[in-house]
Design goal:
single chain; 226 residues; ten-stranded mixed β-sheet; two-stranded antiparallel sheet; 5 helices; lipid transport; lipid binding; StARD5/6; StAR related lipid transfer domain containing 6; START_lipid-bd_dom
């Protein structure tokens, strides 16, 4: 499997979602966070777009979103998040286990995702992810193996105040199992808003440490080789 080619393609797709202004329908707004959706072209479900302003610079926000030492401290939707294989300095395989949500009607899933960090002009950073097969982590009987079609974060500085960032999150997750689509559609918007609110809480904790900038050396020591 050509992981590098998949990673590049996924980043381009996420960039395309960010530039796409047609067909989105606002499904929920709360605390200055907006969730929009439309039918996914990848599977029989929706792609969600979540937008908000985060009181943190792009580089600091970037590390908060993908470094395991930070991610597991704030992201209450996850039981576990580990980098399990490094492909190159900006491309790696992650294993994530989610919490149940929607009052337990959606049970925990696990995901094997190819994550890629790509920098663009204007200090824009895309953290893209796409589920892949990885021999080191085959599906187990402990969790239903979900599948993330091209997803990711687009982090951009707010022009008038670079200490703030615009965060766009794109999610098109195939939960699999025997879930009714209506259950997913009813639960997903609130769950996605919670992720952004939890990230803001995580920033408060991060500010008490010096942290590390979002560049290749930032994540190398956290990789677990399998």
């Amino acid at each position: 499997m050509d992981y590098k080619a998949i990673a590049q393609q996924t980043a381009q797709e996420v960039l395309g979602y960010s530039q796409d202004t047609t067909g989105w329908k606002v499904v929920k707004t709360s605390k200055k966070i907006t969730v929009s959706s439309k039918a996914s072209k990848k599977f029989n479900g929706n792609i969600y777009r979540v937008e908000g302003i985060i009181p943190q610079s792009t580089s600091k926000l970037c590390e908060l979103l993908y470094l395991p030492e930070h991610r597991v401290t704030w992201d209450k939707s996850l039981k576990a998040f580990n980098m399990v294989h490094r492909i190159d300095s900006d491309t790696f395989i992650c294993h994530a286990i989610t919490q149940s949500f929607a009052m337990g009607s959606i049970s925990p899933r696990d995901f094997i995702d190819l994550v890629h960090i790509k920098h663009y002009e204007g200090n824009r950073v895309i953290i893209s992810s796409n589920s892949v097969d990885f021999p080191g982590y085959p599906p187990s009987s402990n969790y239903i193996r979900g599948y993330n079609h091209p997803c990711g974060y687009v982090c951009s500085p707010v022009g008038e105040n670079p200490a703030y960032s615009k965060l766009e999150m794109f999610v098109q997750t195939e939960m699999r199992g025997k879930l009714s689509p209506s259950i997913i559609e009813a639960a997903m918007p609130s769950n996605l808003i919670s992720v952004i609110l939890n990230a803001k809480d995580g920033i408060k904790a991060l500010r008490s440490t010096s942290g590390c900038a979002c560049h290749p050396k930032s994540h190398s020591s956290f990789l677990k080789k399998k």
